[in-house]
Amino acid sequence: PISDFRLHRWTVQSLVKGSLWVTTLEEGVFYCHDFEFLTYDSRFGFSEDLVNAVAFKNNEELFAGCGNGDIFQVSLEKGQITNLMVNPNEYNNRELLYHPEANALWSNAVYWKNGRWRFVEGRNAIGEIVKFYSSKLEKLHINSFGELLGCNYSGFWVIDIQADSVKFNPKGHNLHERTFALHTDRQQRLWVGNARGLFEFKDSTLVSPGIAHPAFHNRVEDIDELPDGALVFGTKGWGVIRWKGEDILQATTDDGLTANMIEDVHVDENGILWVGTLNGLNKVTFEADGRPSAYEPPPTPPKEGSRPSAIRRPTVRRFTVANGLPSNEIYKVKSYAGQVWLCTAGGLVKFHEPEEDTFAAAPVIQYLRANGAEV
Hints:
mainly beta, Methylamine Dehydrogenase, Chain H, 37 strands
């Protein structure tokens, strides 16, 4: 219970910006720096703090998936949980996708509709029609043909959502390989990311872009697309790559990223690139034409006979627990109607970007005293 509520004389300026100090009985003193920056966790009613999937029904309702398999339907307008759905066989919620035309919520390879889980059909190794099970099916999305695509440890799958059946099985096409990323671009080309790098699925096979850059030949964790058609993909160890034609831009910790081991990349409705890592969140911005929004001169003079050029750098802004995040472990970044949401180890975050960077400054110790005596 709240025992006291008062304005601190040193926080008048902060209070004008919308911050708040609250004291409690036996729970300490709490400071809220931003009423639009919200965290939904076990205190809200989730069965655990770790949230690794989210899907949006509309502006007022969303679905949050916890690591233990529980899925919660949340009314943002009422600020409460309205339904609990337990994932079949308590699968980890690797991905959630709401299909508005069918009023169905997909999780892994099954979907929730009219109060129960429904399974699609596929063929087993001997050709029998059976229910299709998958404990992991990530990067779920629906292409322009009305097909659901997802990937897992076996490769990538295509589901005919009208017929409730598996349309493409990687095992039948000699493509049985762990796949981490899957993206259908605006031209309906399918891009695949695995431990060997980035590939285009073409004529029933994986085709490499044929680019020598090492990031194209190492593990690709996630893929998205910028408004100008440039692909962006996150890697394990090589940071983030922006690629369009012969133009390649790499962003790493040298540019300000919180880590080079990327968990998720997401382009929001405004063309802003958000990058999730286990060390925090990153906002990466480019110019409207796709060029980096900042330039730096070359670190060394160009070689004789070469054409001088600037080293292009994106603008990176970092966010961590020092900025109010409940955890630095960012599993997924999503956006809906202009609002950015984060799936983290500390809960589901409705993110609100602060006007100015804040960080926890290291304390300055002037003296130590123990039992009344200076140390």
